[in-house]
Amino acid sequence: MSAQTITFQAHSLNPAEVVRVYRHDSAANNSLPPDSVLLRFLAAPINPQDLMVIAGRYPVQPHYKHVGEPIPGYDGVARVERIGEGVSTLQVGDHVIPRAHGLGTWRSEAVVPASSLLKISNKIEPSTACLLKTSCSVAYLLVESAKNLHPGDFVAINAASGSIARMAVQFARLRGCPSICIIRDREDVESVRQSLLSQGAHVVLTESEFEKGGVAAACVEGKRVMLALDSVFGTSGQHLAALLSTGGTFINYGSLGGASGQIALTQELLFWKQITFRNFRLSQALSAYPEQAQVQLLNWFVELFEQGQLVAPPVHTVEWNNGEGLEEKIRETFLKQGALVGYPKPVLQFESV
């Protein structure tokens, strides 16, 4: 029985040039350290964060290597296949996700300490389960962190077709807060618009529609816009900040517009409107939750999906197969990634599902 692992040979802004797929012997029959488990991965997303890791622009680098090369992938869901004799917190068949960054999920199997994992419900599809942490948790914590957000208040969100933004729209809806969503100009704009409207958005505008004179003012007239969620920064973030009402909060959680972007802190924003500006880091936000509270939060997300109160964001499935051509398929996915910003998130779907 064989296994496969993705690595990257060097830091690069072009991941397609440095990723490699290695086929090697499976660890299925090897002895396990007492504190460890053997995992079979079911699904793993390709997040913007992962591309930053490969580029060398993320502070946490992979903890695991294969043939001396780092194994990327910081999110995913796996099934426990075997457990070490000292493991009491997990059982064979449990579904788990990484507790922290650096686990290396872009591989068919792994042997890791049980303490590096969080157990989750196995009642939802792996393509949804692999988004629980870096999409659902981020979106929920972004919305919940706005203490001055009350039912009837509005939330402004850019890059709103992304997985985190889509979940934020839904969590805001659960708090009684409609969303003003800004999306990129695109061919499928109407289907994306209708999708977001059905999930809790009040209005969905493309960037070109938003920039037309008077449109932004009309969107917020008579409304209390108390939270802006920005994953782009730069000009897009500046426009988003301008929508906020007095006392509102602006949270940046990404830089899809590039690392060189800037937002001008005008007198209107700081003095007249007294806008609060801050950033968001998942690890810092989750640190306020004990382990059991994190597990309960994840399982609550699962319940909401099962009840139909949450709808999983669309994903682009990349079938992981054990035949030839996997490396080329992965490279093609990376080559498309830059052109597909704002489109469904790629998710590696493993053969073992």
Automatic annotation (TrEMBL):
Give the record's keywords alphabetically: Fatty acid biosynthesis, Fatty acid metabolism, Lipid biosynthesis, Lipid metabolism, Mitochondrion, NADP, Oxidoreductase, Transit peptide
An annotated Gene Ontology molecular function: enoyl-[acyl-carrier-protein] reductase (NADPH) activity
Report the Gene3D superfamilies cross-referenced here.
Medium-chain alcohol dehydrogenases, catalytic domain, NAD(P)-binding Rossmann-like Domain
Q: Is the Glycoprotein keyword given for this protein?
A: no
Instruction: Give the highest taxon in the source lineage.
Output: Eukaryota
The Gene Ontology biological process terms listed for this entry are: fatty acid biosynthetic process
Give the InterPro entries listed for this entry: ADH-like_N (IPR013154), ER (IPR020843), GroES-like_sf (IPR011032), Mito_Enoyl-ACP_Reductase (IPR051034), NAD(P)-bd_dom_sf (IPR036291)
The catalytic activity, as recorded, is: a 2,3-saturated acyl-[ACP] + NADP(+) = a (2E)-enoyl-[ACP] + NADPH + H(+)
**Protein name per the record:** enoyl-[acyl-carrier-protein] reductase
Q: Which organism is it from?
A: Penicillium oxalicum (strain 114-2 / CGMCC 5302)
